[in-house]
Design a protein that fits this description.
With about 180 residues, this protein is mainly alpha-helical. It contains seven helices and no strands.
Length: about 180
């Protein structure tokens, strides 16, 4: 589900920013508009793998995966609420938090999948299925964004997807804790 969420947000970042800021300059006199900001935010998402991934992995090892997931999802949900309710620089900071949180989810869930694969009877099959499902989620995100974006406002879509992500992670943590 985190890949679906990420696919929705990444594919609609420019549209969302354009709907919130229009064609005005975001930083007066510098000529920075929506396209530049969207590009910088997307670059931050991919650079975050390198910058924050190892730190989040170490935090996950220290706190435990379940606690780390809970903290990250709560932070992401707060960021989603900030994105839909704030304007200007605070909105952009919340979008950045969503992208960094997405890295945290990917890092933590990939580590959990690795641990599960090591316990599986056929680890290579487990990893193959996990990767295929994750890739399908990445592909499904933009399709959902553009098909549902026609009938739903992007604010509603972000809140709805963030809420589903929260429920999914809560169910996962509950199932993992019971084992």
């Amino acid at each position: 589900m985190d890949r679906v969420f990420e696919g929705i947000v990444i594919s609609t970042t420019s549209l969302f920013l354009a709907s919130r800021f229009g064609s005005s300059e975001l930083l007066e006199g510098l000529g920075i508009r929506v396209g530049t900001i969207a590009g910088l935010l997307l670059a931050l998402r991919w650079l975050s793998d390198l910058i924050f991934g190892p730190t989040i992995g170490a935090l996950s090892d220290k706190l435990g995966r379940l606690r780390t997931l809970a903290v990250i999802v709560c932070g992401m949900l707060a960021a989603v609420l900030g994105v839909v309710n704030l304007a200007g620089l605070p909105l952009l900071l919340c979008l950045a938090m969503m992208f960094v949180g997405s890295v945290g989810l990917n890092t933590t869930l990939n580590a959990a999948a690795n641990s599960t694969a090591l316990q599986a009877e056929r680890p290579h099959i487990f990893v193959g299925v996990y990767t295929t499902v994750a890739d399908a989620g990445s592909a499904l995100g933009p399709l959902l964004a553009y098909s549902l974006g026609v009938v739903l406002d992007l604010n509603v879509l972000y809140i709805l997807t963030g809420s589903v992500l929260l429920v999914t992670v809560l169910v996962y943590t509950r199932l993992a804790a019971s084992q």
